[in-house]
Amino acid sequence: MLRYALRRLLSLAVSLVVASLVIFLVIEVIPGDPASYMLGINAQPDTVAALRSELGLDVSKTARYLAWVGGMLHGDFGTSYTYRTEVAEMIGERMWISLPLALYALTLSTLIAFPAGILAASRRGSATDLGVMGVTQLGVAVPNFWFAMLMVLLFAVKLRWVSAGGFPGWENGFWPALRALTLPAIALALPQASILTRVMRSSLLDTLSEDFIRTARAKGLNRRQALWRHALRNALIPVLTIIGLQFSFLMAGAIIIEQVFFLPGIGRLIFQSISSRDLIVVESVVMLLVFAVIVVNFAVDLAYAWVDPRLRR
Amino acid sequence: MFDRLKLAFAALAIGASGAAAADLTVAIQLEPPHLDPTSAAAGAIDSVLYSNVFEGLTRFASDGSIVPGLAKSWDISDDGLVYTFHLHDGVKFHDGTTMDAEDVKFSLDRARAEDSTNAQKALFAGIADVEVVDPLTVKVTLSAPNGSLPFNLAWGDAVIVAPESIENIKTNPVGTGAFRFVNWVQGDKIELAKNEDYWGTPARLDHVTFRFISDPTAAFAAVMAEDVDVFAGYPAPENLPQFEADPRFQVIIGNTEGETILAMNNRREPLNDVRVREAIAHAIDRQAIIDGAMFGLGTPIGAHFAPHNPAYVDLTALSAYDPEKSKALLAEAGVENLTLSLKLPPPSYARRGGEIIASQLRAVGIETRIENQEWAQWLENTFKGHDFDLTIVSHTEPMDFGIYANPDYYFGYDNPAYQELIKTLDLTTDPAKRTELMRQAQEIMAKDYVNGFLFELAVATVAKADIRGLWKDAPTQATDLTAVYWDE
């Protein structure tokens, strides 16, 4: 198990270095200069030059890359060009919305997917199964931002139960904050839950047709007992993979949903920073997301080994 | 089932907005990058802070005229070179310190300094010296007479700042206005509160929250759900009839200083031929663009000049929609199979307008290659790099026809007669003569068909029906709330 973990850890480190290079190069290649963007079309060239030197943009790219990576190694993500605040501080603040939102959505999606997937698999071919498959087909097909808009029109504009967007902040109480995240979380969870349900169902069905299940049934377990005691755990590997991928997707993929609900989260930060060419913020946030994805995948890899002892070797 | 759901939501509904009648929530599209109006071009900074938190020696009134601000009056020497500003007595910054002539000198010197990062540094270019006469008198000496000095000093980029607050101005702005800055939750909102020690007419609102909603659908939902009381610069004109029909809301449509133009690269073949430019001008049906791209909002213009300005001359007839004339001019210039690049920045006037213009040009035999660009990319490639044939952009700075006198400007118009005229105008202080010169300037640019002059951008504000005192027009980018109140 230890060797397995170490091997995974090494590949994690290599992935991070490669990612930092790719991110830096890609973002620096996009045309557009943060100083000109901030000063607009009437700025004089000497003003732009003064701002560039104030922002530290007048040094070579290599030097900027090394300073950026060096800073990150001891937790310094740099200072935003536009906001002029510490990037780490900004990410910290935004994380308090994006992380709970992702967890909320993931919880909802898992809570829906597990029972629905198990139900559909255990009653294969029944009306319930067909119903679940139909609904999840729709869930995968409907774009989540469109679904989000429909929910806003119904619950905020028509029924006035919730506000159309925005975030009151955790300091004003847990419930108002949770309430503000509810519609976005549902919108994010819907397609994820649909995918997860379908994966859960097909993985269970595959496992249920394996030899060891037949053996278990031959030993006298009924279908239900065989499913719960033997099939479920063996069917979990693909499901875990999907959950791991979904968590990463939810962290990074809330950009549009955060726009629809004007939530001050990580997605909105990336969106604003890209358009204002706040390169250091984009680079650091993307790097952090890459780090999160890699760590989550590392955790998923470890979970595989826990679920399936054969992988520990 | 429905009732139970409702109950569940109600249980979550704690701490909803219980706004008092002296509170106001204002939505604008873009969030300011930081809060220093004197070192960035972002209009969003002025949208929040201009006149509310920061004030200059002079200021724009809602009709675009220049009125006294922190300076109660000023004298101009006979040679037009020395402006002596007399400051209001008893003006205090929000941190309690007194605003006096030293602060004015500091602010103006900072804006025109060598290492200044003021986005409109050109406004201060003619200032040779700023001298403190006494705590309430400042003498500004110019290197040449400049009749637009009071106008220049009204810009948000020329507001008076305190030296001791400069360090943190980007996150904690300290001004002299009727509202003081309270809090900024980045990505979410900026809060202002009434300045109890204001030197002038106090504000009638106690507390103001600015929110930032750029998505048009989210904007619609936020207004309809009454999450916001005012949406200044409402992004989706297609929704306006619905708000107009709803007794809960009022829709205010006003002028801006945004001359929206189809800019042509005058340096490039064949656009350096005035006949080709004229042909393009006649190919454009302005009203079709206003109706199609702006849902009817906007006033046609025939030159780069705001129609609500007294010095405006209606020259739209010079470039009236006439496809036949357009084809004849192209034939006369010997231009065939013309394909031009058309670079479009993000605003809907450009993206929607660009599609319409492309089809209008196709009707006279000009093909276009449309390329959508983000602002940063547009600034880099199109504006700075001059890599374009055509582009659509709204020039939102007030009285900015001086850009046509700069041959290095992105559209590359180089006419010595025009440049001479602008020089004369700068040296003229007599209002009647200035008006005459500005009329001549419009005629020169219109007859040279420098650009396709499309329309003056309109601004729509959607507000709750019982809010009064909002600006109708936008002579500068501002959401001046100093006179706003709830009518009860």
Features:
heterodimer; A: 313 residues; mainly alpha; MetI-like fold; B: 488 residues; alpha+beta; Dipeptide-binding Protein, domain 1; eleven-stranded mixed β-sheet; four-stranded antiparallel β-sheet; 27% helix
Rg over C-alpha atoms of chain A, rounded to the nearest angstrom: 24 Å
Q: What is the overall silhouette of chain B?
A: globular
CATH superfamily of the domain at 257-457 in chain B: Dipeptide-binding Protein, Domain 3
Count the domains of chain A.
Answer: 1
Question: In terms of per-residue confidence, which ranges of chain A show pLDDT below 50 for 5 or more consecutive residues?
Answer: none
CATH fold annotation of chain A: MetI-like fold
Distance between the termini of chain B: 39 Å
Largest sheet of chain B: 11 strands, mixed
Query: What is the alpha-carbon Rg of chain B in Å?
Result: 24 Å
Structural class, from helix and strand content of chain B?
alpha+beta
Order of helix and strand elements from N to C terminus of chain A:
HHHHHHHHHHHHH
What is the chains' assembly state?
Answer: heterodimer
Describe this structure in words.
The complex is a heterodimer of chains A (313) and B (488). By secondary structure, chain A is mainly alpha-helical. Chain A has a single domain, classed as Orthogonal Bundle (MetI-like fold). In chain A, 77% of the residues lie in helices and 0% in strands. Chain A has 13 helices and no strands. The longest helix of chain A is centred in the middle third of the chain and has 36 residues, at 87-122. With 488 residues, chain B is an alpha+beta fold. Among the domains of chain B are: 54-163, Dipeptide-binding Protein, domain 1 (Alpha-Beta Complex); 257-457, Dipeptide-binding Protein, Domain 3 (Dipeptide-binding Protein, domain 3), CATH 3.10.105.10. In chain B, 27% of the residues lie in helices and 24% in strands. Chain B has helices at residues 2-12, 43-49, 101-112, 149-152, 216-224, 240-244, 274-283, 286-294, 323-332, 348-363, 375-384, 416-427, 431-447, and strands spanning 23-28, 58-60, 66-68, 71-76, 82-87, 127-134, 137-142, 179-185, 189-194, 207-212, 230-232, 249-264, 299-300, 338-344, 366-372, 390-395, 452-464, 467-468, 485-486. The radius of gyration of chain B is 24 Å and the shape is globular. The model of chain B is unreliable at 1-19 (pLDDT under 50). Chains A and B meet through helix 2, helix 3, helix 5, helix 7 and helix 8 of A and helix 1, helix 5 and helix 11 of B.
